[in-house]
């Protein structure tokens, strides 16, 4: 294992702040661009990351009808990113259309298709939220597993899940299915809005391929120290 398995989100509002964060943490090799920054900068942020030879997780979490999601996936696949997200709850037809669309978009742009991964259930949702607010009549681990299997059967490369479900998903989906875990919190960090967390070492031990760790690093008084502490705890030294 190496520190390329830790993805840090650029959850800032503009290009200038994103560049400042990258400059502060040059040791980070895999960055995530999400809704806030991409809505603010568009693909300009991807050009900056590529010019620095960084790996890119484009976390736009598409969720719409199949025709619309396919169009968005075709466009996003042209950017040459490493990972791209879609919600599993957009359904089987939509997931299949997205799988085809990333191939078409990447081929047209002459680039490698991204690994398309599906959000199973946002890590900010608790078992109580799922049952009482969303009225889903399944236990949370079962729901997350069903969403992962739906995505795998539709041809996706992997899923985003909380570290609390990753062992079960790894058992059922196999070793080649990419499992990416946000909602990861070192014992010394605040949980914030994350409701199903584990520590980085617990998440890797449970079978995660990649961890997404944001505020424990980026909102720390000293982000470099926080990064080093996490790497040390994981023996990535
Ligand atoms: O279920 C999900 C899917 C995506 N995320 C994203 O990961 C990071 C987590 O940041 P923290 O600061 O470590 O909480 C953030 O960009 C989310 O959009 C998620 O948290 N849960």
Automatic annotation (TrEMBL):
Which SUPFAM superfamilies does the record cross-reference, listed alphabetically? Ribulose-phoshate binding barrel
Q: Which UniProt keywords apply?
A: Decarboxylase, Lyase, Pyrimidine biosynthesis
Domain Orotidine 5'-phosphate decarboxylase residues, every copy: 5-230
The residues annotated as the active site are 61 (proton donor)
Q: Which reaction does it catalyse?
A: orotidine 5'-phosphate + H(+) = UMP + CO2
Q: Tell me which residues bind substrate.
A: 11, 32, 59-68, 123, 185, 194, 214-215
Molecular function (GO) terms for this protein are:
orotidine-5'-phosphate decarboxylase activity
Q: Per the record's keyword annotation, is Lyase included, yes or no?
A: yes
- Its top-level enzyme class, in one word, is lyase
Name the InterPro entries for this protein.
Aldolase_TIM (IPR013785), OMPdecase (IPR014732), OMPdecase_AS (IPR018089), OMPdecase_bac (IPR047596), OMPdeCOase_dom (IPR001754), RibuloseP-bd_barrel (IPR011060)
What metabolic or biological pathway is this protein involved in? Pyrimidine metabolism; UMP biosynthesis via de novo pathway; UMP from orotate: step 2/2
What PROSITE patterns does the record tag this protein with?
Answer: OMPDECASE
EC number of this enzyme: 4.1.1.23
Pfam families per UniProt: OMPdecase
The question of whether Metal-binding is a record keyword is answered with no
HAMAP family in alphabetical order: OMPdecase_type1_B (MF_01200_B)
Identify its protein family: Belongs to the OMP decarboxylase family. Type 1 subfamily.
- Which NCBIfam families does the UniProt record give? PRK00230.1 (NF001273), pyrF (TIGR01740)
Subunit structure, per the record?
Homodimer.
Role: Catalyzes the decarboxylation of orotidine 5'-monophosphate (OMP) to uridine 5'-monophosphate (UMP).
Against PANTHER family, the record matches this protein to: OROTIDINE 5'-PHOSPHATE DECARBOXYLASE
Q: What is this protein called?
A: Orotidine 5'-phosphate decarboxylase
Question: What is the species listed in this Swiss-Prot or TrEMBL entry?
Answer: Sphaerospermopsis aphanizomenoides LEGE 00250
Identify the coding gene: pyrF
């Amino acid at each position: 294992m190496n520190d390329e398995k830790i993805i840090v989100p650029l959850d800032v509002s503009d290009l200038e702040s994103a560049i400042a964060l990258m400059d502060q943490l040059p040791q980070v090799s895999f960055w995530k661009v999400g809704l806030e920054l991409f809505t603010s900068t568009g693909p300009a942020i991807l050009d900056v990351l590529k010019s620095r030879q960084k790996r890119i997780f484009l976390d736009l979490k598409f969720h719409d009808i199949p025709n619309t999601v396919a169009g968005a996936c075709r466009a996003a696949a042209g950017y040459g990113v490493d990972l791209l997200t879609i919600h599993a709850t957009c359904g089987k037809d939509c997931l299949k259309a997205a799988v085809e669309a990333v191939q078409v978009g990447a081929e047209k742009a002459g680039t490698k298709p991204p690994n398309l991964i599906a959000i199973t259930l946002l890590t900010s949702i608790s078992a109580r939220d799922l049952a009482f607010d969303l009225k889903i009549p399944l236990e949370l681990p079962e729901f997350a597993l069903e969403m992962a299997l739906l995505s795998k059967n539709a041809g996706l490369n992997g899923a985003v899940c909380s570290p609390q479900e990753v062992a079960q998903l790894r058992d059922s989906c196999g070793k080649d299915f990419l499992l990416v875990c946000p909602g990861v919190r070192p014992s010394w960090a605040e949980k914030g809005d994350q409701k199903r967390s584990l520590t980085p070492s617990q998440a890797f031990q449970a079978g995660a391929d990649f961890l997404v760790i944001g505020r424990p690093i980026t909102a720390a008084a000293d982000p470099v120290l926080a990064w080093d502490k996490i790497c040390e705890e994981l023996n990535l030294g």
